[in-house]
């Protein structure tokens, strides 16, 4: 799956007056792609703000690349 920007841009989307811009950016590519993905699709999101935006707007848990690599190596990560 190819996705675009989440639109949150660090704390930009949390600042007054920026939510609509942030959400519109995420709706351009990323959120439609995530919604169209299967339940088995792993959604990578290295940035904390990206993971936050995915969870809040799409109800999807974005995973950091390090988590996925550790899982592939059989490492048990504690959250």
Give keywords.
single chain, 79 residues, mainly alpha, 4 helices, 46% helix
The domain tally reads 1
Helix content: 40-55%
Percent strand equals under 5%
How far the N terminus sits from the C terminus, by CA atoms, comes to 26 Å
Kindly report the average pLDDT value: 87
Specify the structural class. Answer: mainly alpha
Count of helix runs? 4
Global morphology: globular
Order of helices and strands: HHHH
Radius of gyration: 13 Å
- Characterize the largest beta sheet: strand count, sense, and whether it forms a barrel: none
How would you characterize the overall build of this protein?
- This protein is mainly α and 79 residues long.
- It has one domain (12-72).
- The chain is built from four helices and no strands.
- The longest helix is centred in the C-terminal third of the chain and has 11 residues, at 48-58.
- It is globular, with a radius of gyration of 13 Å.
- The chain starts with 18 loop residues before the first helix and ends in a 7-residue tail after the last helix.
- The model has no long low-confidence stretch (mean pLDDT 87).
Q: Any chance you could write out the topology, listing elements then pairs?
A:
Blueprint: H1 19-28, H2 30-36, H3 48-58, H4 65-72
How would you briefly describe this protein structure?
The chain is mainly α and 79 residues long.
